[in-house]
Amino acid sequence: MLKRNGIGGASIALIFVVLCMVIFTTISFVFALSQDAMIKNEVESVVAYYEADTLAEAVLANILASPATPGNVMDVEISSRFDIGLGAEVVYFTIPITDMSELYVAVAIDGVDYTVLSWRIYPTGYWEADEGINIFQGFDDILGDEW
How far does Cα 68 stand from its chain's mean position? Predict the structure, then answer.
């Protein structure tokens, strides 16, 4: 008569361990891919901001170098108004960063001195509020009147 050595239990344990390793490897791989895509988007956003910031610095330098405020510098439209409270001309312009945001710059110029009033990122996309929320009201909503 042949005697069994319990190989069946060891095989099942080995299959379970290999299956767990495959599942955890797949989960790790999917997580790494999603993190990679998120990091790439973040890098593109930061690069776009600094490109807009560099352009804004160049536009501001051109505005400060010219005696009169031009209407358009480096393809950026410049607007200005005199602020009585500040006693200076306020120059402002926007530079697009992405399709959903722009860099807004406002500078008060008083002769050779200037003060940066605003250097901010503003969203340009349209925000639409979610008007409804579905709250579970009981099984009557799911099953109808037959319940």
Answer: 37
Q: Which helix (DSSP H) or strand (DSSP E) does residue 33 occupy?
A: helix 7-65
Sorted by sequence, the CB contacts under 8 Å of residue 23 that are 6+ apart come out as none
Q: Is residue 41 part of a domain?
A: yes
Tokens describing residue 121: 């990122």
pLDDT in tens, 123-143: 987 877 777 777 766 666 666
Domain coverage including residue 82: 12-128
Residue 103, token pair as written in the block: 């860099």
Distance (Å, whole) CA 32 – CA 24 = 12
Report yes or no on whether pTM surpasses 0.70.
no
Residue 138 lies in a domain: no
Number of domains in the chain: 1
- Residue among 61, 120, 63, 58 nearest 90 (CA): 63
The answer to whether 105 and 118 have CB atoms below 8 angstroms apart is yes
32-44 pLDDT per residue, tens: 999 999 999 999 9
Residues in the chain: 147
Examine residue 91 and state whether it is found in any structural domain, yes or no: yes
Is-contact 109 120, C-beta < 8 A?
no
Q: Are 23 and 15 in contact (CB under 8 A)?
A: no
